[in-house]
Design goal:
Structural class: mainly alpha
Radius of gyration: 14 Å
Distance between the termini: 12 Å
Number of helices: 4
Shape: globular
Length: about 100
């Protein structure tokens, strides 16, 4: 029997990366050259992300993408670049979908 899919389970890391790139570009790089930002740009090392911006990013992830990032995931390893964040979100979405489909 196939598991029921939720909206989260249908989203891929690429979809999350696209949403994150748009948000980060518009909110954190206003007026700056956004062409320098891609999914492998180091976010902490370049100063694009700091503690306040991580909080804003987490709000966006919760409110717009519908995912909750637990405090256990709040370390530089999970926020290196957009690709890393998107991968973490895809994993969270899959976990959420699996928990929702368990009877």
């Amino acid at each position: 029997m196939a598991k029921a899919k939720t909206v989260h389970s249908e989203r891929s890391a690429d979809t999350y990366a696209s949403a994150l790139l748009t948000f980060i570009g518009e909110e954190f790089l206003q007026g700056a050259d956004q062409t320098e930002l891609d999914d492998t740009t180091p976010l902490m090392e370049t100063g694009i992300l700091d503690s306040l911006r991580v909080a804003l990013l987490l709000s966006f992830i919760r409110d717009e993408l519908g995912l909750y990032v637990s405090p256990a995931k709040l370390d530089t390893r999970h926020f290196q670049d957009v690709r890393t964040i998107a991968g973490m979100l895809a994993e969270l979405a899959a976990e959420t979908a699996d928990q929702g489909s368990v009877a």
